[in-house]
Design brief:
- By secondary structure, this protein is α+β, with helices and mostly antiparallel strands.
- It contains 24 helices and seven strands.
- β3 and β4 form a beta hairpin.
């Protein structure tokens, strides 16, 4: 059996397991409460495993290693931020949010502020964040299926969309709880087991390091450019070309790529000698190995790296509490105490998982530098077993990694689809189980269509932008809504529009490729450092100027949010 056959089998097994577990849980899903919040009866351990399953997305499984391959130490803030965000959520949000009794974030907004307009604004933001987060899942699935099977990229996205709609529409939250818990442990195994063999192979290879120069090919390497790419060459480099470069066709002829930009046509092969400097895809700024291993120097290859780094930290730390698919999980706990216990377990599970993508990223810099040329850095995790181990063992380890990657796409997409479908079914449709199923299909259509147009996006980058939107909108709403009696409906609406609107505009400009360079480019690429304070400031100032719009029942609501359930019920 070939490596691609192993990978195809792995994908098929993950899909089958997902559908079988979902079908089993279908027997337990009957009521509306089952579909939205699993009847609020999920234990902390199951819930934490399910949160780990849906939270560890394509950005975690593939994207972090890819970013570390390209940009190095600066990107370690991604796993740190993804995990540390749960500390903030634990301290400020977890238990009060569960006690609110809401099904969704818009439910919480309406219950706390007694305002239908605020609810509608929150609904739009939930759908925006959900779609922004779903987009890289479909792109990552397309990359994986194309790499493993050679099928067109849209096939992977369509597979994930179809399986997710089936799982969500048939069993709702209760069904995907079991599915996502299983998928967390599959993902952890799929990274942990291969990394042991990769480290052993690295040691057997003499434990090479990157050195201080630019990334170079470790041996004679042939790179196949399937989609066509613009590359940047810093110093002239020789290659044997079979295909078209800069509009000229070559038939296995030696060519010297001079310093500057070059256009490599689709289906072109370039063969480089051992030690040759790796040309970088135009979208990736070349970073020498000494800068790659030093923090606060590259910040994703952008200008003003110190600002970009701290803005990213702010987005990740505070964006977690604003992610709809994460927060909806806390509504499934029996009570506030269970919600806190769930968060503590999640911190442990995430900490264990994020030990591994860093290792993959560092090894990728040594053994898959050709991905810097093709721009496919997100595939490093999938390619390393073949490059370091090889043979049948490498194929089997690669299949295991492929299974984990596909589980990541499915589990995160399921959680996002539930959160978006919950909002669409309640605020656009009539809120019945049938409407929830229709909404589940609507929830995946837009991001899947966008994934067909955005095949070259950096997965973790887009997810980081989704965190920025969440941090700039729902973080201020939750923190002030839970801890400040003076928040008015007008202030909340203004803050959501300003923070969410500015962050969404910046994110849209970044995804569209608007790069002005300098401070303008840095502010657009990492907006959280200015959009989060803006949202808080607007909410506070407008609320202070509109005291008449503070809900009349705020006292009773605050008791319900902060008192233990037994006490709150007496009031």
């Amino acid at each position: 059996m070939s490596g691609s056959a192993y990978g195809t089998t792995a994908i098929a097994l993950v899909i089958m397991a997902t559908m079988l577990i979902g079908a089993f849980a279908l027997r337990l899903s009957r009521t509306t409460s089952d579909f939205y919040v699993a009847s609020r009866s999920v234990s902390p351990w199951w819930n934490a495993s399910a949160i780990g399953g849906e939270y560890l997305s394509a950005a975690s499984f593939l994207g972090i290693a890819g970013l570390i391959l390209v940009y190095g130490a600066d990107m370690l803030w991604f796993p740190v931020g993804y995990t540390a965000g749960y500390l903030v959520l634990l301290v400020l949000v977890a238990a009060p949010l569960r006690r609110s009794g809401a099904y969704t974030l818009p439910d919480f907004a309406e219950a706390r502020l007694e305002s239908r307009p605020v609810r509608l604004i929150a609904s739009v933001l939930v759908v925006t964040i959900g779609w922004l987060y779903l987009l890289p899942q479909f792109v990552g699935a397309g990359l994986t299926v194309r790499l493993v099977t050679g099928a067109p990229a849209w096939v992977g996205g369509l597979l994930v969309a179809s399986v997710v709609v089936f799982s969500v529409a048939t069993g709702g939250m209760r069904s995907i709880t079991f599915v996502q818990a299983f998928q967390y442990w599959l993902k952890l195994t799929a990274l942990a087991v291969p990394v042991l063999f990769l480290v052993i192979a690295w040691q057997a290879d003499g434990a090479p390091t990157t050195g201080s120069g630019p990334p170079a090919f470790p041996g004679r390497t042939t790179v196949t450019v399937t989609d066509g790419v613009r590359v940047t060459v810093v110093d002239p480099v020789a290659a044997v070309v079979d295909g078209t470069v800069d509009g000229t066709a070559y038939d296995h002829e030696p060519v010297t790529l001079d310093a500057g930009e070059h256009r490599v046509a689709p289906d072109t092969e370039l063969t480089f000698a051992a030690g040759a400097t790796v040309p970088h895809a135009e979208s990736l700024r070349a970073i020498s190995n000494d800068l790659w291993s030093t923090p606060l120097t590259g910040a994703g290859g952008r200008d003003h790296p110190v600002y970009a780094t701290y803005s990213l930290i702010l987005a990740l730390f505070f964006g977690t509490m604003g992610l709809p698919h994460v927060l909806v999980r806390f509504y499934t706990n029996p009570d506030g105490r269970a919600a806190r216990r769930t968060t503590l377990i999640v911190l442990c599970l995430l900490g264990a998982f994020y030990l591994f993508p860093t290792v993959y990223g560092a090894l990728a810099r040594l053994y898959t530098p050709d991905l810097l040329l093709t721009g496919r850095a997100d595939t490093a995790v999938l390619l390393l077993p073949e490059r370091l181990v090889g043979g049948v063992a490498g194929d089997l380890l690669g299949a295991l990694v492929t299974a984990g990657a596909f589980a990541a796409f499915l589990s995160t997409s399921s959680g996002l689809t539930v959160s978006v479908a919950g909002v669409l079914s309640q605020d656009v449709l009539r809120g019945s189980v049938r409407d929830f199923r229709v909404a589940a299909m609507l929830a995946v259509v837009v991001p899947f269509a966008l994934s067909l147009l955005a095949t070259s996006i950096a997965i973790a980058d887009v997810v980081g932008l989704a965190f920025a939107v969440a941090a700039s909108s729902f973080c201020p709403l939750l923190v002030l809504g839970i801890w400040w009696r003076g928040l008015s409906s007008t202030g909340a609406a203004a803050g959501l529009l300003v923070g969410g609107g500015l962050a969404t505009a910046a994110v849209s400009a970044t995804i569209a490729g608007v790069d002005r360079g300098g401070w303008a480019g840095a502010l657009l690429a990492q907006p959280a450092a200015w959009t989060v304070p803006a949202a808080f400031l607007v909410m506070v100032v407008v609320s202070l100027r509109t005291p008449s719009r503070v809900p009349s029942g705020v006292g009773r609501t605050m008791v319900r949010l902060h008192a233990p359930e037994s006490v709150a019920l007496e009031h």
